[in-house]
Amino acid sequence: MSVQLYHHNLSPPARVVKIVAKQIGLNLEEKEIDVLAGAQMKPEFITINPFHCVPTLVDDGFALWESRSIITYLVDKFAPEHSLYPTDLQKRATINRWLYWDLGTFFLSLKAYYRPAITGKPVQPEAAEVFKKNASALDESLKSTKYVAGDELSVADISITVTVTLATAIGIDTSELKNIQKWLKQVETDLKPSTWQTLVIDPANGLADLLKSMASKNS
Ligand SMILES: N[C@@H](CCC(=O)N[C@@H](CS)C(=O)NCC(=O)O)C(=O)O
Fold it and tell me: What pLDDT sits at residue 120?
C-alpha cells in the first residue's frame, strides 16, 4: 500500500518531507492541497487532519502532521538503519534538539519576518534581526561540527537547510556567515541528484515571488 503525502509545492515543511523521502528512497503518493485557494478547509481534508495543514502523511490509515514528526517517523519505519536519524539515544536527542530549535525558534523568527507580507503589510525588519541572531548562533555551532548535529547528515540538516535557503530567497542575507555557507555546500553535495534545485532553491524562490506579489497586490 502506498504512503500518501498531502502537500503544496511551495510549502517549506512539505518540501522537508519530500527531501527526506527522496534521501531514503521512499516513493510517496503526492496529493496536492491548494492551500492558497483554501482547499485545506474542505471537509474531506479536515476529516484527515482537523488541524488542516500540509504536510500531512497518511500511512495505511494512520494520519500524521507536523513535518518534523513525519520525517522521523518515515526514517524509523522505512529506513531504520539510516544515518539520517540514528537509533543511538544521544545522537537522536541532539538531532531532536535541533529539530525543536528550528520549529520553535529559527523558522519561527523567519515566519515573523515574512508573514505580514501575506496580508499586505510590510515585512518586519526587527524580526529579520532576530533571525540573523539565530543564524549567527547556528554559524558558531557549525564551527566545530560538519553537520548541525555532528559528523553525519541528519534530518535536522534538511529541516534547517530549508529554513536558511528560504531566508536567502526572501532577502535575508547570511552570506557573511561562512560556516553556514560551507555547510550548505556540503548538504547540497549530499542530497540526491537534482534535489537541491527542484526541492530547495526553485520552490524557495517561488515562495519569495509569491510573497512579493501578495505584498504589492495588497499595498
Ligand atoms: N509546523 C508545521 C507547519 C505547517 C503549516 O503551517 N503549513 C502551512 C503551509 S506551509 C499550511 O498548511 N497552512 C494552511 C493552514 O494551516 O490552514 C509543520 O512543520 O508541518
Answer: 81
